[in-house]
Amino acid sequence: MVTAKGLRLTISEPFDRTGAGRNPLPPALVAELFSGPIGTVATSAREDGGWAVARLDAIQPYDAAGPASAEKKKALLAELQKTIQTDIFTQYNNALVLIHKPEVNRQAVAQALMPVSTQ
Fold first, then answer.
1. Could you say which of 36, 80, 94, 103 has the lowest number of CB atoms within 10 Å?
2. In 3-state terms, the chain is what percent helix, strand and coil (to 5)?
3. Is 53 helix (H, G, I), strand (E, B) or coil?
4. What digits encode the pLDDT tens for the residues 57-101?
5. Burial of 72 (0-12, 13-18, 19+ CB in 10 A)
6. Residue 84: enclosing H or E segment and its boundaries?
7. Residue 100, Cβ neighbours under 10 Å: how many?
8. CA terminus-to-terminus distance, the chain
């Protein structure tokens, strides 16, 4: 049925939750696949204007002793640190806004950002 409709069917290489690999997948598709059990079907628009439809066939356990695991652990640690820093900054900023209730003078901002006349 797929070929009769002029569609292309491919089986992806295994990928992680980032969707990175030989054939990068749209992030929304990967997130939807990982949110459900085996058999989950997900769809997402692709950058080329087409659509990607995927079905989760299997989940492979992570091989912590594998050759790429040290680099993956380092990348994961860096990503977690950045995420935690961003979360803490966001919470701190939100608390300051709640406490001090700043107001923006849009007219003053517009004047400050206006190009200076060179006459």
1. 103
2. 45, 10, 50
3. strand
4. 998 887 777 766 777 788 888 999 999 999 999 999 999 999 999
5. middle
6. helix 69-100
7. 8
8. 70
Tally of CB atoms within 10 A around 6: 6
* HSE (side-chain half, CA atoms, 13 Å) at 52: 23
User: 39: Cβ–Cβ under 8 A, 6 or more apart, which residues?
Assistant: 55, 56
pLDDT digits (tens, 9 = 90+) for 16-55: 777 766 667 888 888 999 899 999 999 988 888 888 889 9
Write down the pLDDT at residue 108: 93
**CA–CA distance, 91 with 6 (Å, rounded to integer):** 50
Q: Which pairs count as long-range contacts for 93-96, CB under 8 Å and 24+ apart, including other chains?
A: none
Q: What is the pLDDT of residue 21?
A: 64
Query: Taking a C-beta distance cutoff of 8 angstroms, is the pair 12, 26 a contact?
Result: no
Q: Which two tokens stand for residue 119?
A: 């006459």
37 touches 43 (CB < 8 A): no
